[in-house]
Design brief:
This protein is an alpha/beta fold and 153 residues long. 43% of the residues lie in helices and 22% in strands. The protein is globular and about 40 Å long.
């Protein structure tokens, strides 16, 4: 079992997958992302329920690959997750355009922009996890930048 996490300024989307790593699905939106107590409690509950071996957090880079404020926030989130769950393999994976892709899929499914807000973060987490699972199948190993709580910037 693996988790996908879309760490945003206001909300954190969480997704999980089946044990075989084939199907990713939305789990929950944690809000507000600024409330560390809420975030920590919900992450502990999710990890206890799903018992993941790995968590992929999206690393939002600019189109040219540079990192900005959102990437710094994702790195802080990854460090928090790695610190809370030292047994968990926490990795950052490039997530350029996953929110755009998630929004397009929700729009195609009939959700208006106004009604996407409640699920867009979970849909982005599903996109992040699907991207990681696809890359794992090609690499035959876990992918992304491993975070152990000490190598954050």
């Amino acid at each position: 079992m693996r988790l996908g996490i879309d760490w945003g300024r206001a909300r954190i989307g969480v997704a999980a997958c089946d044990a075989a790593g084939v199907l990713a699905y939305p789990v929950e939106t944690i809000a507000p992302a600024s409330d560390r107590r809420v975030v920590t409690e919900r992450l502990r509950a999710i990890v206890a329920e799903y018992e993941p071996v790995a968590a992929y957090l999206g690393l939002p880079r600019h189109l040219r690959g540079a990192e900005g404020e959102a990437a710094a926030m994702a790195r802080q989130g990854a460090a928090l997750v790695a610190g809370l769950f030292p047994e968990l393999d926490v990795r950052l994976i490039d997530e350029r355009l996953t929110t755009v892709t998630a929004s397009r899929h929700l729009h195609e499914a009939g959700r208006s922009s106004r009604h996407q807000r409640s699920v867009i973060d979970q849909a982005a987490a599903v996109a992040i996890l699907n991207q990681a699972l696809d890359a794992e199948r090609v690499a035959l190993a876990r992918v992304g930048e491993r975070i152990d709580g000490r190598n954050t910037r």
